[in-house]
Amino acid sequence: MDSFEWNKIFGGILAGLVAVLGVSIISDMMFARHLPEKPGYEVAGAEEAPAAGAAAAEAEKPAAFYLASADIAKGEAVFKKCAACHNVDPGGANGTGPALHGIVGRPIAAAAAFNYSDALKGMAGKPWDWDALWGWLKSPKAYAAGNKMSFAGISKPEDRAAVIAYLNSKSASPLPLPAAPAEEAPAAEVAPAEEAAEAAAPAAE
Ligand code: HEC
Question: 30 or 60: whose pLDDT is higher?
């Protein structure tokens, strides 16, 4: 074989290599590897931290759920938002808002000499029970359209419960906080005795 033949052979090999390399680069570009955002399998025990938004979007539980474990000290801090307009001490005077001492359980619109809006006057007679205060402090506007309390409401249920518990403590006779509502009963069809018997019996196959 003369050198011309060798040149042809090497040239051929080189051309082949270039072609293979080219194809692999192009196919890499065409089929870019995308890792799945979620693994296709769940790793037991490796629970994902819930996204911050997910917790907020979660439906709010009933008032009693939060009130049962409400933090009065936290409520005192939350009340700073209210203190500009409300006095909560015994014998406290009305300010921009009515005096709030003993408000939990007190009838709506009952502070002496306070000029309530028609919205609240229209509800007079009903008591400020837990649920009423819960609704009012979540959104005064939604609870009593046309009222004159310039306050948007407390969006965090924990803070709302805390301030209600604090208001309750500011009373000659604080009421017992409501008990936490029972959690949804887990599958109650199987009687405990049956369950125990099943557990005791060896799996008969
Ligand atoms: C900007 C002033 C202002 C702020 C802040 C404010 N309030 Fe009021 N509040 C009022 C006014 C005014 C009324 C009377 C509303 C009406 O007559 O429509 C009122 C009424 C109330 C009532 C009904 C009282 C009754 O005798 O029926 C409650 C309860 C209450 N406020 C609690 C709160 C709490 C708790 C906060 C803080 C989280 C708060 N308010 C913040 C001005 C305010």
Answer: 60
Tens digit of each residue's pLDDT (9 = 90 or more) over 60-70? 999 999 999 99
Q: How far is the CA of 93 from the centre of ligand 1 (A)?
A: 13
Does the beta carbon of 141 sit less than 6 angstroms from any atom of ligand 1?
A: no
Q: Are 100 and 170 in contact (CB under 8 A)?
A: yes
Report the residue among 86, 96, 129, 139 best suited for mutation to probe ligand 1: largest number of ligand atoms under 8 A from its CB: 86
Q: Please, are residues 168 and 104 in contact by the beta-carbon 8 Å criterion?
A: yes
- What ligand 1 atom has the least distance to the C-alpha of 148? 18
Burial level of 76, CB count in 10 A (0-12/13-18/19+)?
middle
How far is Cα 133 from Cα 123, in angstroms, rounded to an integer? 13
CB of 165 sitting under 6 A from ligand 1: no
C-alpha–C-alpha distance, residues 101 and 139, integer Å: 21
